[in-house]
Amino acid sequence: MRQLTKSIFNATATAALASVLAFANPALAQSGNFALELNTATDIGDGCQLTYVATNNTGIALVETAYQVALFDENSLVTGTLVLEFGALPVGKTKVVQFNLAGKKCASISRILINDVSACKSADGTHDFCMSGLITNSRGDIQLGV
Q1: Which of 54, 57, 81, 103 stands 20 to 30 A from 66 (CA)?
Q2: CA 139 to mean position of chain CA atoms
Q3: Which residues pair with 94 in a beta bridge?
Q4: Tally of CB atoms within 10 A around 133
Q5: How many CB atoms are closer than 10 A to CB 104?
Q6: Whether 110 contacts 73, CB under 8 Å
Q7: What is the domain partition of the chain in residue ranges?
Q8: What is the pTM of this model?
Q9: Per-residue pLDDT tens over the stretch 7-22
Q10: How far is CA 46 from CA 38, 39, 77, 82, 120, in A?
Q11: What is the DSSP string of the chain?
């Protein structure tokens, strides 16, 4: 009887721990996602340099990845659109990519909207998880989202 009680206790403890870990950080617990973080925005010369961190957790190696984004000013007006090309991203790969926006100071950008996926291609074709599984984050004053 004592062995049965110990087995039930261990099974219950294991299930409880798994539940806690699953809800502790849902973004980390999920597989099949694509994470895009606006890490820094730095004025350089007459422009703004945006540094992104992209992580491919989709389980599929991507040969081409790109997003069309819209830039909003401090009055929430769209000031332009552009395509950010991240290139190839192997499975589990984290990549840092910088984009320079000439003639635009960082303080003039309040938000960056991921408007559409321009490319999400593997050797097997195109995929929709670059948008459907996209997780965005921003570490600075400029918001990043869908």
Answers
A1: 103
A2: 12
A3: 55
A4: 17
A5: 18
A6: yes
A7: 1-28, 31-145
A8: 0.75
A9: 444 444 434 333 333 3
A10: 20, 20, 21, 18, 32
A11: -HHHHHHHHHHHHHHHHHHHHHHH-HHHH-SSEEEEEEEEEEEETTEEEEEEEEEEESSS-BSEEEEEEEEE-TTS-EEEEEEEE---B-TT-EEEEEEEETT--GGG--EEEEEEEEEEEETTEE-SHHHHTEEEEESSSSEEE-
Contact 114, 144 (CB under 8 A): yes
Fold of 31-145: Immunoglobulin-like (2.60.40)
Strand pairing partners for 69? Answer: 82, 114
Burial 57-70 (b: 16+ CB within 10 A, else e): bbebebeebbbebe
**Looking at residue 32, what is its pLDDT?**
73
User: Which comes out higher in pLDDT, residue 54 or 27?
Assistant: 54
Q: Which two tokens stand for residue 10?
A: 């261990």
